[in-house]
Fold each of these.
Amino acid sequence: MTSGDMEIVEIDDELDALSSLRMELTQLSTQASHSIYKVPKLLRDVNSKAYEPQIITIGPYHHGKDEYKPMEEVKLRYMQSLLARKPDVGLERYLSIIAGLEKKVRDCYAETIRFNVADFIKMLVLDGCFIIGLIGESTIHNDRTFPGLKWDLVLLENQIPFFVLCELFDLIQGPDQHTLLMRRVLDYFEYVFPGNVLYKPEKRSEEVKHILDLIHSNWCPSPHNISTATQASSITSFLIPTAAQLKDANVKFERKEYDRDSETFRESRGTTVFDVEFNQDNGVMSMPALVITDGTESLLRNLIAYEQFFPTHEPAPVTDYALLLDCLVNSSKDVQILSQHGIIQNFVSSDQAVADIVNRLTLKISHYVDNMMYVDIFNRINTHHKNRWNRAMAVYHRDYFSSPWAYVSFVAALVLLLLTAAQVVFAALQQFK
């Protein structure tokens, strides 16, 4: 090979490398539009069932699997019902609207979608119309007919873009009714989430990525409501003692009641499960109740998995809350203490089962403390726990006032001591007279 031939080969190699790199950079630039992800393997390995649908698939990631085929007929029935209710809007209109969005929808998925165009459009129309029909029905009827369905609809891998729902809702309900759509979705999931799901009118439909994102943004505190007064760099420890250890340090637990007042419920105010407080003056830690059911782990794990894809500067409130729970709960004893105060409401098999659920939540996650919302609480709790006087008072209380009879004995002894002292004083006064 001559030197000229070698130069031509080198130039060809450079052009190939340039073309390949440009293609990869182009693909990278489209990742900004991704909003529907596959759960990372590290998280899936902890509990794979928490991320997989039980009865129904929404979107392409699990579509076509044999175990979910019975619900495909149900989707067809919902589509048939919608067509009957809106005879002026033919099936071809639904398909045409979604066909115009097909490329945009594909870009929302982080994984390559291998469905052909026709099958992909058909799936989106059936899934979207099923959800719209579902949220317009009686929740009690749905829960009885499709037990466990709600948990499937909040899985990270079981989503379709929210703008698809908006476009279909325009055909079914009328144009520009997206606020109504968001409210219906929140109403449908009202009792799935612990505490209030608060409708935040500042969230526009164009900003909503999918149902899980809508729930996350309305259930979690707004970024501007998360305290950043204490910087993460000044945190004394990324851990706090368990509930049992805090009890031994004279910390008292109280359940914080949810604000269900009609004027605040579903507005941008009200109590949520994240509203944890610690009063260092009296040692009282107040927390809203967390109901633990068979679906709680899946719900929290999918929200945490979703937060794993947030930019590092954005708050991750569910991850923060899970870390707080994991610190407080290390054994069935800790669950028992929190349950006695109504903070944990256990609807699973045992206290140990709850402890196992909580301890799995933070396994294999990436956690950034720059915007952690409990930094100040962690610092105050650790300061309180290190105070020897608090621990001494707790031991004294445990050893001498562990039962109501101990209090009665103490009061009786105190009264007897006071009477004896009074008698001595009285006798002394009589002598001096």
Amino acid sequence: MCSHRKAANTATSKLLLEKMVALFSDVVKSSFTVLFLSSQSVLIMHRVELQYHFLAALCCLIFAAAVVRSCFIPSSSSQLYLVDFACLKPPDSCKVPLSKFIKHAQNLWEKESADFMTGKLTHSGQGEETYLPPGLHFIPPKADHKETMEEVHMALFPVLAELLSNTKTAAQDIDVLIVNCSGFCPSPSLSSILVNRFSMREDVKSYTISGMGCSASILAIDMAHDILKTHGNSNAVILSTEILTTGWYPGKEKPKLVLNCLFRMGAAAILVSNKKQAKETAKYKLIHSLRTQRAFDDTGYLSAIREEDSHGITGVTLRKDLLQVAGETLRTHITILGSKILPHTEIFLYVASIVKKLYWDKSTETYVPNFKKVMKHFCLPASGKAVIREIGKGLRLGEKELEPALMTLHRFGNQSSSSSWYQLAYMEAKQWILKGDRVLQLGMGTGPKSTSLVWESIRPIHDEARKSVWADCIDRYPHK
């Protein structure tokens, strides 16, 4: 009850502040009117020529516009700061060693399907300590709505509470709330569940994003940035997860069984702000964001799609051309991104190699720009070990740059959209990030689509290991 009363008082205070600003705006407008009329009277009394009347009026208008803009109109180029983030560490009871998963598969499916899943799992790059929600530990798995909602509470409530505690932020200080989850879209929405649980303000702007795949978290940051451009002095919280209980596929079609093997439990909560004082405590500032997609192409659109199998069981089909589609999607995205952030020398070498290949020597290999000249750290799609290495090859990355993605995959598995934040947490726990370092977060999702963010560290990131999701295991990594 106290929290609701506090939220109501906060909303009332905000309304009073808005009225005071409106009143001040009226006073400023009246003052400029008086100033303009007074200047015109003086000019008339001194019989000044007509053109100077217009000049005085123009000066007043320019001055008034500048003052009103600076006071009341938020800048479209307002800086977005990443204050902090938190990653979920599920309870140990949710851990799924490879042997346990394989044994369950053998009890639930016939030998051919179980062997197929065993092969996918053992070659995925996952270790022995990944997590699945409680409902999927039963034989047969419990994938009803009750179990699914329990996973929602287990994934989202603790990680948001941790973020608010770490940043000393009250739930009533949240102005914008964005929750992304591709496969589960309840009513009331996931964002409404959080507003209710944490007693947020009545005027909080809440959004729930579904169906956007593994790129959704990075996309949500870009969305928050756009929203905050028209809402100055505001905080936005993004929660990213993938609810696995409802997405479990009990059928027999192999293209749909792959997801059972790859995805694991995880969630992240991120606080961003455009408040000027956020610069004092924030870790990073946003330098660039980019979104591209290929949903216009039928092959790409159908490469990963939720549909029913021949027995009416719903699952996500991953078709054989998915890797080719992902490569084309990423290539287009990286080309556009490179044109915006790479030095001119790298762009020239890339264009020159294409021209040479087209008009002189078709055997010439296309030059691969060196992104390490502008980026120090990389958060990559953690879909699988082979995918990570292929992306690294395309970006000319070494083992050090691939380590966060590979180690996140090994320790926590593929957590869909939240994996990128576990990778960033890994770098912070290793104390790799120095002031001025730039970090590229790259995501790819169904659609297909690709998103990226470029962050710049505004202070050294130290002493994160003890409070990080990696706290109990960072000394064991990199795993050989």
